[in-house]
Each structure stands twice: as C-alpha cells, then as structure tokens.
Write a structure and sequence with these properties.
Layout: H1 10-17, H2 34-42, H3 60-75, H4 79-85, H5 101-109, H6 128-141, H7 164-172, H8 192-210, H9 217-224, E1 228-234, E2 240-250, E3 254-257, H10 259-262, E4 267-271, E5 277-287, E6 292-297, E7 318-323, E8 331-344, E9 347-352, E10 363-366, E11 372-379, E12 386-390, H11 391-398, H12 406-411, E13 413-423, E14 426-435, E15 439-448, E16 453-459, E17 462-471, E18 476-483, E19 486-494, E20 500-506, E21 509-517, E22 523-529, E23 532-540, E24 546-552, E25 555-563, E26 569-576, E27 579-582
C-alpha cells in the first residue's frame, strides 16, 4: 500500500464532493451515523446510486459492490487490473442465480463465496457476522497484516466459527462495535449506513498501517496479548521442571516458542489470558541450534499474532515484549532495538533493551504495529542486554509438519557436531550423541573456551560414566568414573607438576582409598577424605624412610610408627600435625 491518503479516480471524487445528504427522515442516515457516512461518500467509497435508503438492510450484491469499490480506491486501478496483476481468474457464471460483475469479482478476490447449492442470493440481506467476515476478507485482499484481539462480547458463544476471527479483527480495530448490553448481535441485520460507516473505518485502518502508524502500548497489549500464552513443562514423573512462554500463529492451534523451553520435557501445558488451558500435543518442527520449536495444541479459533519482517528493523526502533517472566503471565514491557544482527555464540539475534527474565523465553517481540518480529530468548548480565531470535529465521519452520510428542522427543537420540551447550556451568562446544536433539547423552566430547575438555560418556547433559577430563586452569587430567558431573568412583588424576593419584573419588575429590605419588618419588598409600590424607595410611619417602599410622589434613597425626632408611623402627607413639609427641597420647 502507498504511504498517502488513498484517492479514487478524480472524476468520482469530484462528483462525490459535490453531493450532500438528504434531510433527516426515512431516506437519510441516522444522526449518529451522519458524519461517518459523509466521510465514506467524500472518499468515493459509496457509489452514487447507493446514496439513499440508508437505514434499510444492505443486500449481498450491494455489499460486494462496496468491497470492490474499496479495492479500487486503495489500489488506484480498476478491479479487473487488480485481478490480472494477481494472476487470479474471474469465474463467469460463478453463481447460478446472478451474473453480477461485482459479485463475480468479489468471488475472484476471495471476499465472498456462494452457497452449497451454487446460488449467491444477491438480494438477500446480510447479518453482522457476515459483514465482519466480508470486511476481514477485504482487508486481507488489501494486505492488512494486523491481528485480532480477544472476544469480550457477552454473546460471543453465538458467533459462528467461520466468523470468529473476522469479528475479532473488526472489533479490535474499531471497524465494528458492539450493540447494547455488551453484545455483538451476530445474527442482526446490517444496514446500508452501517456498511458505509464500517467501510470508512476500514479505510482509516488501512491508511494507518500503510503510513506505518505506531500503536500505543495499551493498543499493543489489547491486540497482541490474547495470542501469547504461559507454558509449564513437566518431567517423566509429571513434576514441573520449568516455565516459559509461547504465542499462537494459527487459529487451529499452532504455537511458536524457543526449543530450550521444551528441552527434556515429557509433557507441557499452556494457558492463555482468557483462562483456557491446553496440553501440548506435538512438536511439529524444531531446530536446536536456532532455538526454535513449533508446537500444536487441540484448539480452534485462537487469537493469533501477525508476523512481521524482522529484516526491516532498525536500531533505535521501539519494540515491545509480551511473555511470562518469572511465571508472571501476560506481562508487557518496551524498549528499543539495540542491534539488529548481534552475533552471540555464532548465532544472530536481535538485541534489545526491552526487559526479559527467566520465563520470558518463547514470548513475543513486537514492533510498533503489533507484529511479531522475534522470539524473546535470553539475556546477558543486566536488563539492557536481551536477545530475540529474528522472526524471519522462524518462518521456514511454520510449514513443516513432522509431528512428534514431547515424550518421544525427550527420548529420541541423535548425533550433533559443534553444538553450543552449557556444561558444568560454562558454555562449551559439544560433538557426540544427544537426547531430545539437544542434551548430551551417550558418547561425546565437550570443549570449553579455556582449552578444558571432557571426552567420554554423558547422561542427560552431564559427564556420567567413564571419561577423561582435562582442566586447563591447573593442567590436570582425570581419567575414570563420573557421576552426575563429578569424578566419582575409581580413577587416575595426573597433575601438571608430575604428581599423580590413583584410587577412589567422590564429589570430584580424592576420597576413599588410593595411592598418591609425588613427582619427587615420595608416595602415600591409604585413606583420603575430601582431597586430604585422612585415616590410616603409609607414607614412603624416596630415601626409603617410612611412616605407618594415622593421618589428619595430610599430616602425621595420631598413633604411628616411623622407620628409617634401613627399615629400623625409630619412633613409635603419638604424632600431632606432623610432629612426634612421644609414647603418651597428648591431651
């Protein structure tokens, strides 16, 4: 659409501008409608021969004429050219009971359809919900990209399923309003003046979007928040293991979120702002590296979020986030785009100052027109370093349909290369087997930026089983058993200075029985606790001297015997912190 007031053919505008409405009466618009009807006429939206009988019901044929006129006004060309430009086909004799050009052109554009018996019933009146549907389809023809909010009308359950989205659109944009007592009155008849007024309002909506009009935060919230849901994920035992956010992109239950929100989950439930909850049935598509997941729930008529074009974002542009930070669902915040293509861990993100917190992951990043431009994903230190996956990176997954349940995904194994993961509290690059597409599980190798690495067996994201761990900081190398990420069981630890320990470990420390050999040749054989010689043991010097007895904090401490280089017993008695105290135990 063009960024200016829409204009019709000059002859039509000039004629319309010279007209005036009749005086009040049966043929005139109601007082409340007069101003907007005049506006519609002045903009060329109402053909001359329809400028009468304003309070009578409008026919289906007449409404088609209004819709086609709207298309010509906006596109600034005859409808036949619009149809040709879009490579559409006008079906002659599309209906068995009319050959009206306006009805056939509206049908070609997808604005109307006939009845099952092939008729169109051109002189039939239309209901309010039918009008909403035709207005919505007209807006779509004119490339309107906004979305509808939630339905708050007291009679919303009476709205036909085919019209739910259209009524959401019409009511949230202000194109149509309710009637008395908070009702929409979906089956109520639609008059000419109502049709003219709503066409005028629709033009204003289209003009606002074409001009790049920004919505207020309140408008963003009212229009977009109904499509964003809170998510809770559960383990195999049904215990909650995390929360996040997601948003609906299709009325039939298609949701978008971050992959890491559902990682390792066996089931999940989502809750929308209207209070309705749904179980996640399937994962339709996912990408671990891009951190994207497309989910499905069993729902119809969901409020949806229109998707924008993340490539059009510019630094300094105002954006909004809606999600469930810290489990606080339906939270909106705003900020600016700090960078449109920030690379973090080899992946490109939108950087924004719009604050997010744990639980925001999977939520929506919105532009000023209420369009989704990203998935809120993560944050670095502080609330001004926040990141979102660009929505253009997400779109390729929306058409994929490879359904797998969360339980199946959590148990599925595969192999990855150079995947970014977090292990032992630090980011690492992992190559090997994974569970659920992202969790190291099986044989693999992880490398940290400082040069440290682990190679061996993993279980659910942790070293667990047999493996080798090299720690760059102290240049130590451990080979042996691991349990839940720690050295535990039997193993060998070699230090950079030449010392070596072989024996039992617990909680990542020398603990149990083992042999510690110093680079000098001295050797300790005995019990250890939390990295120290503790308990009964034998310390043999490279010179041949030997201590046999009790140790505390790696020192002779307690009862013990000391032998000289020839093997002769030289001292026997009690020791304290490495010093001999005599045959009598000190008190």
């Amino acid at each position: 659409m063009k960024n200016k007031r829409f204009i019709v053919f000059l002859s039509a505008l000039s004629l319309a501008a010279s007209l005036s409405l009749p005086a009040a009466g049966a043929d005139a618009p109601s007082d409340w409608a007069k101003t907007e009807v005049e506006s519609a006429i002045s903009q060329g939206l109402v053909p001359r021969d329809l400028q009468s009988s304003y309070q009578t019901p409008i026919t289906r044929q007449e409404f088609c004429r209004l819709a086609v006129t709207m298309v010509e006004v906006v596109e600034e060309k005859p409808v036949s050219q619009v149809i040709a430009d879009r490579e559409l086909q006008t079906k002659e004799n599309a209906f068995s009971d009319t050959q009206d050009d306006y009805a056939e052109n509206a049908c070609a554009l997808g604005i109307v359809n006939g009845y099952e018996d092939g008729t169109f019933r051109p002189q039939g009146s239309i209901t309010r919900q039918e009008a909403a549907k035709m207005l919505y389809e007209t807006a779509k023809v004119l490339e309107y990209t906004g979305s509808g909010g939630s339905l708050t009308f007291s009679d919303r359950d009476n709205i036909a399923s085919y019209a739910v989205t259209a009524v959401k659109f019409a009511s949230s944009t202000g194109v149509m309003k309710g009637v008395e007592d908070g009702r929409f009155d979906p089956a109520g008849l639609y008059t000419r003046q109502q049709a003219y007024i709503t066409m005028d309002r629709l033009l204003s909506v289209l003009e606002g979007e074409s001009a790049g009009g920004e919505m207020t935060a309140n408008q963003i919230f009212n229009q977009c928040s109904p499509a964003v849901c809170y998510m809770e994920v559960y383990d195999a035992a049904g215990q909650a293991i995390g929360t996040g956010s997601a948003f609906a992109v299709e009325e039939n239950g298609k949701l978008v979120t971050n992959y890491h929100v559902i990682r390792d989950a066996y089931s999940a439930r989502v809750k929308f702002p209207n209070g309705k909850t749904y179980s996640v049935e399937n994962v339709l598509a996912y990408d671990v590296k891009r951190d994207v997941a497309v989910l499905s729930i069993s729902a119809q008529g969901l409020p949806t979020l229109p998707l924008g074009d993340s490539s059009t974002l510019v630094s300094g542009q105002t954006v909004y986030t809606i999600g469930s930070p810290q489990g606080l669902d339906n939270t909106i915040a705003n900020g600016i785009v700090s960078a449109t293509n920030r690379v973090v861990d080899g992946r490109e993100y939108i950087q924004t100052t719009a604050p997010i917190s744990p639980g925001s992951s999977g939520g929506a990043l919105l532009d000023g027109s209420g369009r989704g431009v990203g998935i809120t994903t993560g944050t670095l230190s502080g609330q001004n370093l926040n990141f979102a996956v660009p929505i253009n990176d997400v779109k390729e997954y929306l058409d994929k349909n490879d359904p797998i349940t969360l339980e199946e995904l959590a148990g599925a194994t595969s192999r990855v290369t150079n995947m970014q993961v977090t292990l032992m509290g630090e980011k690492a690059t992992y190559t090997g087997e994974v569970l659920g597409g992202a969790t190291p599980h099986g044989e693999g190798r992880a490398e940290w930026a400082d040069g440290s690495y682990y190679e061996g067996t993993f279980q659910r994201g942790m070293p667990w089983g047999k493996g080798t761990y090299y720690k760059s900081k102290n240049q130590s190398l451990y080979t042996g058993d691991f349990y839940a990420g720690f050295a535990q069981g039997e193993g060998v630890l070699k230090y950079h200075n030449g010392d070596q320990y072989e024996g039992q470990f617990a909680g990542g420390q020398m603990h149990g029985k083992g042999i510690y050999t110093f680079k000098s040749g001295d050797q300790y054989v005995g019990e250890l606790a939390y990295g120290s010689f503790e308990g009964e043991g034998v310390y043999t010097y490279v010179t041949g001297e030997k201590y046999v007895g009790e140790f505390r904090n790696s020192k002779f401490d307690g009862y013990g015997r000391y032998y000289g280089t020839t093997g002769k017993l030289e001292r026997e008695g009690y020791w304290y912190q490495g010093s001999f105290k005599g045959e009598i135990k000190p008190v």
